[in-house]
Design brief:
Radius of gyration: 21 Å
Order of helices and strands: HHEHEHEHEHEEEEEHHHHHEHHEHEH
Number of domains: 2
Low-confidence stretches: none
Strand order of the largest sheet: 1-9-8-5-4-2-3-11
Strand content: 5-15%
CATH architecture of the largest domain: 3-Layer(aba) Sandwich
Length: about 375
């Protein structure tokens, strides 16, 4: 009997999403900043402890808002890892900024905080830590460096909602934080994101930028008698249909997160013998338990081994994947940014990483199939 394919990820309907969309439609208004959008704002502000949350149509949009708030000008430099999605860099390049790429740590795949200070120049304006796989960067060290040099910290927490560092939720430690609710993330709205404003000095301007550069929100609150064009901005706010779907997800955030952490924990515990035998390398157990279950990855011993393992899994209907082409070696990265030193670990990891399927609806039997296939591959290949 042929077994059904196991996807890399699968969107999940928690319970009330469709009912809330219907309620939004019945209200007679589904434009941005409606009832459910405001409910999501209050939920995120209360649960995460941020001063202000603003839903956006993507995490990319949240990063673009952050770049405007950083007042990035032509030639200004922004320090970030090369091992990240293109949006991290694009947001600042669009403002004329220059991404300055630094290498990552082998244990977390996050930016190496020891390389931040050497990368700072007179043109540096911001640091963008990316919490890969929901695992925290060393935010204490990064925030200390930023304070010493008067730099803004923008957390790219696209993968990290509900992950913690020293009992603080990621996205709320830096001056600004950016979340993703893309279909591939833990909490989803199809497309969607949020800007978290943690520093009071950015609050008023963030709302104006969010509302196309106008003080429209102040007008609707009765704070001004008419609204006007106040600043640059764009249509960053999503339809209230997005807010309605997202609120249905947020109601079950703990359940969703717990299930995903459990899947990652099971992967680690079952695959640990392969790590101990030197066939693969796993992330640390502590990092998994502090993260949000967004992703489980292993590192093969070589590019050829990674390619063979992926082919082996795909042939058995298991959709495992690798991840980014490093930005510093991508055509646009070479054109718009620069590397601050060697990218040894970034280059090495990008050739060895294998991401295994993780999604809320994954059954025990499906996960057992994935684990068994990984063992079967290494038994057959002796690697």
């Amino acid at each position: 009997m042929n077994e059904s394919a196991i996807p890399f990820g699968k969107p999940f309907i928690a319970e009330n999403e469709l009912a809330y969309i219907g309620e939004a439609i019945a209200s007679g208004s589904i434009m941005g900043n409606g009832k459910f959008t405001r409910m999501c704002h209050r939920w995120l502000e209360s649960r995460l402890g941020t001063r202000r949350a603003l839903l956006t149509h993507s995490c990319t949009a949240a990063l673009e808002m952050a770049a405007i708030l950083c007042d990035i000008q032509s030639g200004d430099e922004v320090i970030m890892p090369s091992y990240t999605f293109v949006s991290t860099a694009n947001a600042f390049v669009l403002r004329g900024g220059v991404p300055v790429f630094i290498d990552i740590r082998p244990d977390t795949l996050n930016m190496d905080e020891k390389l931040v200070q050497p990368a700072i120049t007179a043109r540096t304006r911001a640091i963008v830590p990316v919490h890969y796989a929901g695992v925290s960067c060393d935010m204490d060290a990064i925030m200390t460096i930023a304070k010493e040099h008067g730099l803004i910290v923008v957390e790219d927490a696209a993968q990290a909602i509900f992950s913690t560092t020293r009992n603080r939720l990621l996205g709320t430690v830096g001056d600004l934080g950016c979340l993703s609710f893309h279909e591939t993330k833990n909490i989803i709205s199809g497309e969607g994101g949020a800007l978290l404003v943690n520093d009071e000095r950015f609050m008023e301007r963030a709302e104006i930028i969010w509302e196309k550069g106008t003080n429209r929100s102040q007008f609707f609150r009765g704070q001004v008698d008419k609204y006007a064009w106040m600043d640059i901005g764009s249509s960053f706010l999503p339809s209230d249909l997005i807010g309605a779907f997202l609120y249905g997800q947020l109601e079950h955030a703990d359940r969703i997160t717990s299930k995903r952490i459990g899947l990652c924990k099971e992967y680690w515990e079952q695959l640990a013998p392969l790590d101990q035998a030197g066939h693969i390398h796993l992330p640390s157990y502590d990092s998994i338990m502090q993260a949000n279950g967004h992703m489980f990855y292993l590192l093969a011993n070589s590019l050829s081994s990674r390619t063979a393992l992926l082919d082996f899994l795909h042939a058995r209907g298991i959709h495992a994947v690798f991840h980014y082409t490093p930005l510093h070696s991508s055509p646009a990265g070479i054109k718009y940014g620069r590397a601050a030193g060697p990218m040894t670990i970034t280059d090495n990891v990008s050739e060895r990483i294998v991401r295994l399927p993780v999604y809320y609806g994954m059954t025990n039997a499906e996960q057992e199939r994935v684990i068994a296939a990984v063992f079967e591959f290494h038994k057959a290949h002796g690697d």
